[in-house]
Amino acid sequence: MDSDGFNGVVERLLSAADGTEDETAAVLGDLDGDVVARAVLGEIAARAALFEGATAPVTVQFDVGTPDGRLDYLVTVGDGPARCERGRLREPWVLVRQDLTDLLRSVYGPAGAVQGGTLEVTVRDEDPPGSTGEFGYEDRHQAVRAAHQLTKACSARPVDLDLLAVRFRSDKWGGHWYTPHYERHFGARRDQRVKLLEIGVGGYHAPDVGGASLLMWKHYFRRGLVYGLDVFDKSALDEPRKLTVRGDQSDPEFLNALAKRIGPLDIVIDDGSHRSSDVITSFRTLFPHLRPGGLYVIEDLQTSYWPGWNGGRTHPDDAGTSVGHLKTVVDGLHHMERPGEPSATDRTVTAIHLYPGVAFVEKGINSDRPAPAWIRRDVDPAVWMADPSALSTEEK
């Protein structure tokens, strides 16, 4: 199954995990149990690296119950990437037994829901044949750490965004200080099934380099689908819930087609070329594809002042620069007080939050009312407030 097809299955599983236990089970009844189990255990294996666990490799036996019988899988964790495969050990150090419906809901279900009722975790007490003394004791200690690592990976406990940025080497913490701002605006959404598009994968020409922020977002939004857009082919970085697309952010036709195919979108992050013309084109094209309540983020606004990056114009309010364009968005935010017909963007921008180097633009319905008509716009308020009799009755 190709990446798009597998992610289609994962998207269906994310939706199924939102329902009641019976509703989840009904959806799983129409799917191949092995495909579902591999998807869920693959997610667990990917999350396992986020938690402190075994330092030496430990292979954990998963016994997954389905309506058609039990399926056996081996998940190996330790100091390095975890892996998952079909198989059974005769005497595993750790045995995890759980019904597939319960396992799916534990991994992909909403936080706070009561799940895990069928979970059994067994760590063997006795040493395996051939081990003696301290060696066997250390093996069991590693097995306990592996069991803890995987059970945490199965849960909905949030992982700090700063930690994720450092773990995956994203420059959003350390290179910049963006993650506190992201936490402020994304925190309430992290348990939702968001669709996120980030422009700019990183790594330039190297096909298997970059994607640090995409990994960060995948694990921050444990129920989200994450897409990365880059001018270079980054398909080697694709994995469940994280896909890359090759394309140019300066091409409105391409951006429209992409957004129609993967959208509607909940979050767009522009961390691409940082050229003002590209930033403006991307915003104008993709903002209409955001869901109501969505967020559009533009990073590295400092380039708006750099001539070599299509910025640094002669006037700081030049609408051809990224920051200058955002100033026009601020004007549109107050369209009810300005002459002329408001644009679609004017009507749907509800807030703008600016921090050093990064802006967050919220989408919704901008229906704020203008000030009362009796307030004179053309008279200094100090004049008429000091002497209201200076106004006619009709003007009061």
β-sheet strand percentage: 15-25%
Structural class of the helices, strands and pairings? Answer: alpha/beta
Helix content: 25-40%
**Biggest β-sheet description:** 7 strands, mixed
Number of helices: 13
Which sequence of SSEs, written as H and E, runs from N to C? HHHEEEEHEHHHEHEEHEHEHHEEH
Using only C-alpha atoms, the radius of gyration works out to 26 Å
Q: State the end-to-end CA separation.
A: 72 Å
Q: Which whole number gives the mean pLDDT?
A: 88
Query: Could you tell me the number of beta strands?
Result: 12
CATH architectural name of the largest domain: 3-Layer(aba) Sandwich
Q: What shape does the CA trace take?
A: elongated
Sheet with most strands: strand arrangement:
8-7-6-9-10-12-11
CATH fold group of the largest domain: Rossmann fold
Give the CATH superfamily of the largest domain: Vaccinia Virus protein VP39
Q: Into how many domains do the coordinates divide? A: 2
CATH class of the largest domain: Alpha Beta
Report low-confidence residues grouped into runs of 5 or more.
none
Explain the layout of strands and helices.
Blueprint: H1 3-16, H2 21-28, H3 33-48, E1 58-66, E2 69-78, E3 80-86, E4 94-99, H4 100-108, E5 120-123, H5 133-154, H6 161-168, H7 179-186, E6 195-199, H8 212-220, E7 225-230, E8 242-246, H9 252-262, E9 265-270, H10 276-286, E10 290-299, H11 322-333, H12 344-348, E11 349-355, E12 358-363, H13 381-386
Parallel strand pairs: 1-4, 6-7, 6-9, 7-8, 9-10
Antiparallel strand pairs: 1-2, 2-3, 4-5, 10-12, 11-12
